[in-house]
Design a protein that fits this description.
Layout (H helix, E strand, L loop, with lengths): L5 E2 L19 E2 H4 L7 H8 L7 H22 L5 H10 L1 H17 L12 E8 L2 E8 L10 E5 L8 E7 L4 E8 L14 E3 L1
Antiparallel strand pairs: 1-2, 3-4, 3-5, 6-7, 6-8
Helix pairs in contact: 3-4
Length: 199
């Protein structure tokens, strides 16, 4: 990668995702072209790291992308040897990462946000992104289709009208939720590196 690969523009403060003085989102020109202009701001906001990742997290993502896309290439072009597929995947990781995120983003955009009531059961739906399971949505509707994987996240007790929502998140999104009566703090929360809990 050289400096000509990177797209930077002077911030004029109009429609930017950052406050004055905060770091801005920058991307490679080739990656920028893969995302439709009308959805770039929302796409960048959804895919930007919430915190600077540790080297181990970058390595995990790099490894997952390489293995995933090498496998896709081998299945698509069966005449190519695995070593060549791996070399191609290695050279195209940036492109593959953007295409994968953009495809998931387009799927998620089909389901607009809807309010969730904590006076009724709350179901959680998940999606997988780069080998990690993330929460895609919360809803009060139990899935009609038995093939749709959803978990019951909250079943309110009679008389409890307030709820506390605890979210576990990593660099790219929310991985787990614990919902309970506002008067109670969950007894178990998972502690591991690169995972943060918030209320």
């Amino acid at each position: 990668m050289n400096s000509s690969d990177i797209f930077l523009t002077t911030c004029r403060g109009e429609g930017c995702l950052h406050r004055w003085g905060d770091p801005a989102v920058a991307c490679h020109t080739d990656c920028l072209r893969l995302v439709p202009r009308e959805s770039r701001a929302a796409f960048f906001e959804a895919t930007v790291y919430s915190r600077e990742p540790q080297p181990a997290e970058d390595k995990r993502r790099h490894c997952w992308l390489r293995v995933k896309w090498s496998g896709v290439l081998c299945r698509t072009y069966r005449v190519l040897p695995p070593e060549l597929c791996d070399s191609i995947a290695k050279e195209c990781l940036r492109l593959f990462a953007v295409l994968h995120a953009a495809a998931l983003w387009e799927r998620a955009r089909r389901f607009p946000p809807s309010p969730v009531s904590f006076s009724a059961r709350v179901w959680v739906y998940y999606t997988w992104f780069e080998g990690v399971r993330y929460i895609s949505s919360l809803t009060n509707r139990q899935p009609d289709d038995p093939n749709v994987k959803a978990e019951l996240a909250f079943d309110p007790k009679p008389g409890h009208i307030d709820a506390s929502v605890f979210l576990a998140e990593d660099y790219l999104g929310v991985t787990k939720t614990l919902i309970g009566p506002a008067s109670e703090v969950p007894s178990t929360t998972e502690h591991r590196p690169n995972l943060w809990w918030r209320v």
